[in-house]
Amino acid sequence: MSGSWSDFWARPNKIYVNDRHLAAHCRAVADALLTAIGDARDLRVMDFGCGDALDAARVSARCATLYLFDASPVVRERLSARFAGAPGIVVLDDAALDAVPDGQIDLIFLSSVLQYVDPGDVDAFLARHARRLAPGGRLVVADIIPPGVGVVHDTASLLSFAAREGFFFAAFAGLVAIFFSGYLRLRQTAKLATYGEEIILAKLSAAGLAATRLPRNLGEHPWRRSYAARKPGGA
User: The whole model's pTM is what?
Assistant: First the structure.
C-alpha cells in the first residue's frame, strides 16, 4: 500500500466522526461479510483489511475460523487485545499472514482495500490472495471505486448513512474536521485507485478466478461496486 496511506491509518484520524459512526461502520461491514458467507457454517474466512472489526464475534459464530488482518500495527494491537482468547478468531500479523499455507482459506473478504493498493501491485496482490484460496474458494472484493466516483459521492454517502444510523449532525461537523485534517490533501497527492468493471473483472480473471459483479455493493457506499470471484475446483 501507499506509504502515505499507511501512515494516515496508523495515526489518529477523523474518518470516523464519533464512536457511534465507528460502531455503525463495523456493523455494516460485518453484515456485508455475513452476506458473503451465506448459509455456510464451516468456512475458514479471512477479513483482510478488517479495521477495528468490532462485530467480529458475530461473524466468527458463522465460521470455522475467522482470520483478521489489518496492515496497521496499531490496529492489530487493538484487535489482539480485544479478541485475546476469543474462540474461532485469529488475529494475524505480517509474519503470520505470510505463513498461511496456500489453498487453506475458503473465503477472503476485501472491503475498501484495493483503492489503497498501488495499481502497479494489484495484479500480484490479487494473485497472492487467489493462491491462499482453497479449491472452490471465493474472493469477495467490496467497495471498489469506479472512475468518476469521488469526494462528492463520498460526502453524500456519509450523510445518508449518518441519517439512517442517528449521527447526522455529528457527521456534518465531522466533514469540517476531515477537511482540515489533511485527508482531502492526501487524496489529491496519493490518489485512491479506481477500477471500471471490465478492468477489475480482467484482473480477477488473470489471477485465475471466475468473477462476476454483484447486484449491489456490499458496503455503505451505493456508488461503489462489489465483485465475487471463485477459484476453480472444489465441490
Answer: 0.88
